[in-house]
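RECORD TYPE: inverse folding
INPUT: structure tokens
STRUCTURE:
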């Protein structure tokens, strides 16, 4: 199911997405960056997975949107961060986009999913979510983007959720505690980390009594 398909009819006793999270659409986001300081370091990768809902009210990850990002002029890159992420900035197949174009690439399917489910705004879901939101907000400010669908400061953090549900706060351990496999070779890729976090969020949210 894609985020542009029609919303499936819900059973009479199912809370629709538009009311499940007080009008917010959960969208899992992960960023890879040139360091830890959102005010200084470059955004290098971003990925987003809108959360979908089936006719029984079960949440599941939607389609992934992702972009490699050209470091913005004036931003810095700590070489140690590249050692962790494995990003090769001049790789011929990186096909990086300027920041505004990258944001548009991410925001368009998010807005489509919001429209599909009748949600007023997107809320960022992340593992240590304020880190991702800080870099997202900094990028939005740099390019003066006027159509940011995300709430500017509220988040759902899977560190907290996984700590409560499984007693684990490290993403790899939380994903495994939730019953999923974890590939350490794929970790620290925005796409992989986002998709794993999306599965973790859905597993916890679907188990919550309603």
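DESIGNED SEQUENCE:
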């Amino acid at each position: 199911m894609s985020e542009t398909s029609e919303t499936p009819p819900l059973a009479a006793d199912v809370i629709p997405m538009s009311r499940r999270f007080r009008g917010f659409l959960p969208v899992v986001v992960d960023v890879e960056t040139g360091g830890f300081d959102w005010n200084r370091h470059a955004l290098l990768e971003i990925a987003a997975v809108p959360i979908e809902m089936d006719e029984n009210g079960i949440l599941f990850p939607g389609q992934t949107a992702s972009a490699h990002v050209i470091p913005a002029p004036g931003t810095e890159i700590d070489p140690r961060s590249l050692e962790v992420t494995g990003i090769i900035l001049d790789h011929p197949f990186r096909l990086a986009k300027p920041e505004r174009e990258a944001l548009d690439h991410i925001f368009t399917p998010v807005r489509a999913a919001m429209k599909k489910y009748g949600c007023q705004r997107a809320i960022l879901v992340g593992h240590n979510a304020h880190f991702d939101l800080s870099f997202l907000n900094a990028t939005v400010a740099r390019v003066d983007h006027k159509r940011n669908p995300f709430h500017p400061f509220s988040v759902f953090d899977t560190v907290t959720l996984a700590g409560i549900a499984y007693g684990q706060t490290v993403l790899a351990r939380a994903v495994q505690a939730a019953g999923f496999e974890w590939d350490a070779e794929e970790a620290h890729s925005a796409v992989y980390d986002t998709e794993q976090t999306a599965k973790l969020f859905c597993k916890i949210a679907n188990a919550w009594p309603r």
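NOTES: The mean pLDDT is 94.
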